[in-house]
Design goal:
Largest sheet: 6 strands, parallel
Order of helices and strands: HHEHEHEHEHEHEHEHEEHEH
Oligomer: single chain
Shape: elongated
Strand content: 15-25%
Helix content: 25-40%
Distance between the termini: 52 Å
Structural class: alpha/beta
Radius of gyration: 21 Å
Strand order of the largest sheet: 7-6-5-9-8-10
Number of helices: 11
Length: 268
Amino acid sequence: MITSTNNNQIKNIIALNKKARERKAQRLFVVEGIRAVLEVPGELLSAVYYIEGFAASVEGKEFINDIIEKAPKASIEEVTANVFKSMCDTVTPQGVLAVVRMQDFTLQDVLGIGSKRPAHVVILETLQDPGNMGTIIRTAEGAGATGIIINSTSVDLYSPKVVRSTMGSIFRVPHIIVQDLAATIKQLEDEYWVDVYAAHLKGYRYYDEMDFTGPTAFMIGNEGNGLSDEISELATSYLKIPMEGQLESLNASVAASLLMYETHRQRK
């Protein structure tokens, strides 16, 4: 049992929770909660920690047996209540935490190449709200999107708040983080014949009047400023989302959800 917060493993987990640069350097991040840890593919589990006494419960025994079966190479450690609290980002932790390896996806994975469905991609530029990011990833799974492209100035995909809000979808939706978003968009259009759409004031057709049955990508911009001029000008087409009242724009995750589910509807 680990009894001290000075333990090197504990110090590292605290660093992974707090610092994006540590997550990036180690290619590791933290997942909290019984259900959330069980959602992690076994090959990605590096280490699992549980609070003292958890293993004595029926739920605890079942959980540990499941982890041993799915991830026999992962280390499993018991820690004291005080130590466990220091490791967690949540206010009321469930008593289980895992250190998880990041997945490596390619642009081809995001486009769904090799599957029988055309590309259905969401492109995120400088999205800052963890809840929006997590909701978009979760909705992408539900709407059958093939993947997500995120620029490097967006909120960290592997921050604890984003990971929690994806509800496990982060492990099932292919995603890549790119340094040069403009170059990636041009590659989608020129090499893969993807139609890239942007919700924009210049749009003259409503989204539900357009055809998304071919290879399609939607660009979603920053919550406060929308898409940058550089990125919006790369769109194959502009579209409009109807709004009543005095609204000028919708929440980023709401706009993305409308477009993804319209694509899903058209492809059924």
